[in-house]
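Bumping my old thread because nobody answered last time. Still need a sequence for this structure:
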């Protein structure tokens, strides 16, 4: 399956709208704004914009769109689309990102050649410009397809971001480039997570994901089943036993010259390339969805790429254990005991709770690589979907670090919310025969999963992000097609930047 390996550049235009060369200018429009909000627009559309607003044909509700031709001899652009942006006091980076993406999707559908998107002034303008660049780039994603009779997707428009805020052109050009990189890396993660289990085996996943990162200058390594055994990773090996595909462990290192020794951010991603549940097999209905059970691993790999492309001046290590979870003659069985690389023993009461097993060994390895702060990302539990639905990822871990990740994630457009991790929940993982079990029953299922992971964090500051609900969109939205969302890529990369930023002070 093909997807764009790198996105096209985005031009930045400061200054007057009338002089802007484009086939379409998309202009976000807030509820209740008069036609005069954008100087000269009503005249350039021969009164069409004013008429549509006066008649209530266009009200500025989110994602509403009104197109009008631009009269010859007025503005240079050919057409304008005003785009409902909702209430002005609710405007932020998130809505800007979504509006830019929605405009970009429509422009692609309508085969627009050159599209300009106006970033309306407000708040932190560079942040809005960055979000717009992310949104346009996100619209530049072709889900990929194995259909044999489908025409190739139309080339995306060439994008321009037009500014009407206070202009510091150099700063804003940097913001555009940052947004483009973050959008591109999100798209790469979406491409990986959309890929079926038979094409994206653990070996293929490791090859593609390390390639993406290595191309950006990240040092990468792929450990095979022998090396994994030498490290004593009994949890990862245990999950892999049921499969005829061997497991892999991806390692990523971003170690820029001159970076301080600490902090070392350690990113760990769940890389189950297909989750049947193993011997505790899942029902057939909907099981095809479990091809995206490596979305956390893809997010880590693609965030490593972004971190390198952004020139982030701190050290970051990434670890992605990858395997299938299959039933088979050699598969682990409920009641089996596994020994982790750290030495802790686990009674596997349910083979479908495999993500926490492989992450246990992954977290240990990130510590071994020198991580001082740990963040893991995983499609870990159905229970987090019950708790938070499909819009919000669950955050678990040490309080102040959770707070930092929450702030960064919400700005990056990955909605996240903290969940409790009281030690008492650990009682649900009590085992008669091993240090603990791998499942704690239905109650608080996403929390007991997090407490299992905590056993492997060595007391370091740690955040677990459960993306089981947010990694996959069941329905298309104006700003996003169905399928893999690329959640957490922008959060992880922005978190590394946030670490670097707080060092400067
Ligand atoms: N990959 C699943 C979690 C999942 C469920 C992701 C639905 C996306 C959508 C995970 O490996 C799993 O099977 N978890 C079990 C754990 C249970 C056996 C304790 C679950 O949530 O049912
Ligand atoms: Mn499972
Ligand atoms: Zn799983």
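Sorry it took so long. Here it is:
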């Amino acid at each position: 399956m093909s997807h764009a390996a790198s996105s096209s550049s985005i031009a930045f235009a400061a200054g007057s709208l009338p002089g802007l060369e484009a086939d379409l200018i998309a202009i976000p429009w807030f509820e209740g704004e008069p036609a005069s909000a954008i100087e000269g627009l009503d005249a350039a559309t021969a009164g069409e914009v004013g008429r549509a607003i006066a008649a209530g044909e266009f009200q500025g509700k989110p994602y509403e769109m009104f197109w009008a031709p631009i009269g010859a001899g007025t503005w240079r652009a050919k057409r304008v689309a005003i785009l409902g942006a909702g209430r002005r006091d609710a405007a932020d980076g998130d809505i800007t990102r979504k509006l830019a993406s929605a405009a970009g999707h429509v422009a692609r559908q309508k085969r627009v050649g050159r599209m300009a998107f106006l970033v309306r002034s407000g708040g932190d303008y560079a942040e809005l410009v960055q979000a717009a660049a992310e949104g346009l780039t996100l619209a530049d994603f072709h889900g990929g397809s194995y259909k044999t009779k489908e025409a190739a997707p139309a080339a995306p428009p060439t994008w321009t971001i037009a500014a009407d805020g206070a202009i510091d052109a150099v700063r804003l050009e940097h913001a555009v480039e940052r947004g483009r990189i973050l959008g591109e890396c999100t798209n790469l993660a979406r491409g990986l997570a959309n890929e079926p289990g038979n094409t994206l085996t653990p070996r293929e996943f490791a090859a593609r994901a390390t390639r993406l990162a290595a191309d950006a200058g990240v040092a990468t390594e792929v450990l095979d089943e022998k090396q994994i055994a030498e490290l004593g990773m009994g949890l990862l090996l245990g999950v892999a036993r049921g499969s005829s595909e061997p497991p892999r462990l991806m390692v990523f290192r971003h170690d820029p010259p001159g970076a301080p020794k600490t902090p070392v951010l350690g990113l760990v991603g769940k890389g189950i390339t297909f989750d049947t549940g193993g011997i505790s097999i899942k029902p057939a209905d909907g099981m095809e969805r479990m091809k995206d059970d490596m979305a956390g691993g893809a997010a880590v790999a693609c965030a490593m790429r972004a971190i390198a492309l952004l020139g982030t001046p701190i050290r970051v290590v990434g670890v992605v254990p990858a395997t299938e979870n299959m039933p088979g003659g050699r598969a682990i069985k409920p009641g089996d005991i596994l020994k982790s690389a750290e030495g802790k023993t686990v009674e596997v009461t349910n083979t479908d709770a495999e993500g926490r097993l492989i992450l246990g060994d992954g977290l240990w390895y990130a510590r071994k690589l020198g991580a001082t702060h740990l963040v893991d990302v995983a499609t870990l539990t159905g229970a987090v979907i019950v708790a938070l639905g499909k819009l919000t990822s669950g955050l678990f871990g040490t309080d102040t670090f959770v707070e930092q990740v929450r702030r960064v994630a919400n700005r990056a457009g990955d909605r996240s919310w903290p969940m409790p991790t009281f030690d008492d929940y650990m009682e649900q993982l009590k085992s008669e025969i091993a240090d603990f079990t791998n499942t704690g029953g239905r109650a608080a299922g996403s929390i007991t999963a997090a407490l299992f992971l905590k056993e492997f964090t060595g007391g370091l500051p740690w955040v677990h992000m459960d993306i089981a609900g947010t990694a996959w969109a069941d329905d298309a939205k104006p700003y996003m097609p169905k399928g893999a969302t690329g959640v957490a890529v922008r959060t992880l990369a922005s978190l590394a930047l946030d670490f670097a930023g707080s060092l400067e002070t």
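Residues 1-5 have pLDDT under 50 and may be disordered. Let me know if any region looks off to you.
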